[in-house]
Write a structure and sequence with these properties.
The structure holds two protein chains of two kinds. Chain A is an all-alpha fold. Helices cover 68% and strands 3% of the residues of chain A. Chain A has a two-stranded antiparallel ribbon with strand order 1-2. The radius of gyration of chain A is 21 Å and the shape is elongated. Chain A starts with 14 loop residues before the first strand and ends in a 7-residue tail after the last helix. By secondary structure, chain B is α+β, with helices and mostly antiparallel strands. Chain B has two domains: 223 residues, Alpha-Beta Plaits, CATH 3.30.70.20; 42 residues. Chain B contains seven helices and ten strands. In chain B, β4 and β5 form a beta hairpin. Classes of the chains: A mainly alpha, B alpha+beta. Chains A and B meet through α1, α3, α7, α8 and α9 of A and α3 and α7 of B.
Amino acid sequence: MTTQALYVKESSDDQLERYSFAERIWHWLGGLSYTYCMLSGLALFTPYLYWLAAVLGGGPTARFWHPWVSLVFLATVLWMYAKWLADLRITDIDHRWVEHINDYVTNRDESLPPQGRFNAGQKVFYWVMFWAVLVLLVSGIVMWFPEWFRPNFHFILPIAVIFHEAAALISIGAIIIHIYMGVFMEPKSLRAMIHGRVSRAWARAYHRLWYERVTEGTSTEK
Amino acid sequence: MSQATLGIRRISGHAGPAPGEDVERAEQVCKLIDTTTCIGCKACEVACLEWNGYTFTDTVFDNSYQTMPETAWNYWNLIKFNEHEREDGSITLLMRKDQCMHCADPGCLAACPADGAIVQYTNGIVDFQQANCIGCGYCVTGCPFDIPKFNPATKKMFKCTLCVDRVSEGLEPACIKSCPTGCLHFGSKDDMKGLAETRATQLRENFGFAKAGVYDPAGVGGTGVIYVLHDVTNPEAYGGLPKDPRIPLLVRLWKGPVKWLGGWSMFFGVLGVAIHYLRYGPKIPQDGHDNRDDSAPGHRDEGVKP
């Protein structure tokens, strides 16, 4: 008599580790802190979204935590910089990818040049967030402690606000595309960021250079 | 205020007209500060503290008669002392009572993001509602007079209320009541404007202050606090009164086009990706087989091009 296995263990041969546990922790810490900052920031951006402040515990609470949580987000961006810099450098391959961006947008991925661990779109997303967070940091410090800059440097205050909003809006545009790509366009990349693994076929299809690098010297290729 | 609507218009069975039936109450209130008759006694500073329930706090001495360098969250009324050198080389001590100007077009209110944290009453008084204040300090950015101050303990902003609690009961503000020289006046904006112009004319014609005039800056729509100055062409000499105060252009940009553009951009961004999804759908690997891990929503059979 045979018993039905409770579950069928996935063959580890089929799977590659895409994101380590630490990478996933830092990514989701970034996602969480960014989301908080975005929602509390939008509450102050327009009166039509001020109700978001109530959702986040009230206006004073949102105002108090927004700058502190932003420091968590800053830390995650810097951690990713340290960890992923080699994979994030823009290369000639990326320029060729960008030339074929129409094929990417219209899902004709087979005509795109092979990509490393991150494709050019992912790299651009990172660098947009990286520069946005630096602008947000500098302008945000001015907005955090406006009393430090008056009376003599009062003129800096509205300049900081404009830069803060511009950088925030650009980062929101980037995050809309990021979430759309990760959750809807490419659901497997969401699962990769949750469970850490991708199938070999997926890796070969979308990140062939990375696939070849991590499978180099192994004979598991099927 | 609401009491104003309870004036008597008609009375039944009354011999003769109703008392005050023709009276029209000017709603716009105004404080007039005549710097030419201020003696710098600081009675107004003390009255302000007393009425508003604050105690005197530590301050610094910076070789001036001035009580402290600038107004504070719990010190809304400060006479600014400035030793000014006249054109002939002689020295004069200019004294100006500094406080919220109660602008007709308040920069603090324009910049504030919190619903109901700053209100402007029909009588022109601009008042902070600390219960709604979130302590963001945007009002500091919007104010061309650098008036709102932050209380770090409660994380709320504070400033002069023009004694709205007294004015609403028909009383004059505490500073006005305390002034011993009569350099402070309180009344309707029209009356105060008239009184100020009369005094300025007097100064020009009888006292040799050829540049004397009234400070009621148009850049902020006029103010609920106006000054008579010996030299209206140089308000900066009176402890940094701005010559042409305006809400900073960038604040207008921030609260107008940027808000509008940003809101629509976010809306169309989300709409755009949604339409893209409907048109192109999720990506499917084109080469090789996939494994059973591929039962995610949106997955389609291998090899079928979308």
